Amino acid sequence: MSEKDYILGTHDEELIRLGLQHRVWRPMVLDCWQRAGITVGKRVLDLGAGPGYAALDLADIVGPYGEVVALERSGNFVNAMRASFRRRGISNAKIHELDLMTGDLPKAHYDFSWCRWVLSFVSDPSLLIRKLGAIMPKGGISIFHEYAHYETWRFLPPIAAQEEFRKHVIATWRESGGEPNGGRNLPALLFDNGFHIRSTRPLIFCVRPANYIWQWPITFIEVYLPRLIEIGRIDRTFADKVRADLAAAEKHPNALMITPLVAEIIAEKV
Ligand SMILES: C[S@@+](CC[C@H](N)C(=O)[O-])C[C@H]1O[C@@H](n2cnc3c(N)ncnc32)[C@H](O)[C@@H]1O
């Protein structure tokens, strides 16, 4: 699967959406990295770094005596990452434009690896974990935030059009060679490749419209509806129905949304 086949696309709207997504998740991510032990002077590998929002935070945290190595396939995202690192004066990060499936992961003594929302999109997660197992040193820590049960994503009271939309999301990710619940096989894959799980957490939220977390799935819907139209999966009438039902939910004083379940897994190479 090439960049142009990447189901979420690498256009500017997606780049901006990934920025909002990172800002929403930032408190949970910083907390996780701190618990895992990422600190000044460490070397961190970022797998499928996108436009580098997390990589930028990591570079700040590890500081001038540490290093971040960011791997990303999309040329657009790599260019955006290079530009934002330049703007921020980041000099402790290396960026490699690389396909995780076909390329060799750059060798170095990594203290940590970080992988978020990538296993759902690569064609062979077992290959990626095998490659990771081959380069992480004994004692190295690998951290994952990956979807484990995407079907938890729903509204209360339920919105039928959103549940239909969610089915299209799952189907199109699968049709493009990915697996929405990319984290499901991770415990077994890690074990097979010499990692022991040190800690896990379910990351799932039940939020009201005024909560910033609400914006994360909502902006995904905004960006993905046109994509579903473009690939001929839905028509404009259905897209308008989803938008109208969501707008109504936002006005409902007691509307709730349960987010897609993300599994946090922190594993050590033994
Ligand atoms: C949903 S985005 C997540 C980006 C980033 N990890 C984050 O948390 O913001 C998935 C990323 O994986 C990248 N990706 C998907 N398949 C890839 C592959 N085979 N090799 C390298 N990157 C890949 C995409 O280009 C995209 O940037």
Protein architecture, described:
The protein has 270 residues and is α/β, with parallel strands linked by helices. The protein has a single domain (3-269), classed as Rossmann fold (3-Layer(aba) Sandwich). The protein is built from eight helices and ten strands. It has helices at 12-36, 53-62, 75-87, 125-135, 160-175, 186-192, 215-230, 236-251; strands at residues 43-47, 67-72, 93-97, 112-116, 141-149, 154-156, 195-203, 206-207, 256-258, 261-269. It has a seven-stranded mixed beta sheet with strand order 3-2-1-4-5-10-7, sandwiched between helices. Strands 6-9-8 form a three-stranded antiparallel beta sheet, with no helix packed on it. β1 (43-47), α2 and β2 (67-72) form a beta-alpha-beta unit. The chain is globular, with a radius of gyration of 18 Å. Residues 6, 8, 18, 22, 48-50, 53-54, 72-74, 77, 99-101, 116-118, 121-122 line the site of S-adenosylmethionine.
Sum up the structure in keywords.
270 residues, alpha/beta, Rossmann fold, seven-stranded mixed β-sheet, three-stranded antiparallel β-sheet, 8 helices, 10 strands, globular, binds S-adenosylmethionine
Short recap of the structure:
This protein is of the alpha/beta class and 270 residues long.
Biggest β-sheet description: 7 strands, mixed
Q: Could you name the ranges where pLDDT drops below 50 across 5 or more consecutive residues?
A: none
Strand residue percentage = 15-25%
CATH class: Alpha Beta
Ligands present: S-adenosylmethionine
CATH topology: Rossmann fold
Q: Note the total helix count.
A: 8
- Strand order, biggest sheet? 3-2-1-4-5-10-7
Q: What value does the Rg take, in angstroms?
A: 18 Å
The amount of helix comes to: 40-55%
**Mean of all residue-level pLDDT scores:** 96
The CATH superfamily is: Vaccinia Virus protein VP39
Shape: globular
How many angstroms does the end-to-end distance come to?
32 Å
Number of strands: 10
Query: What's the order of the H and E elements?
Result: HEHEHEEHEEHHEEHHEE
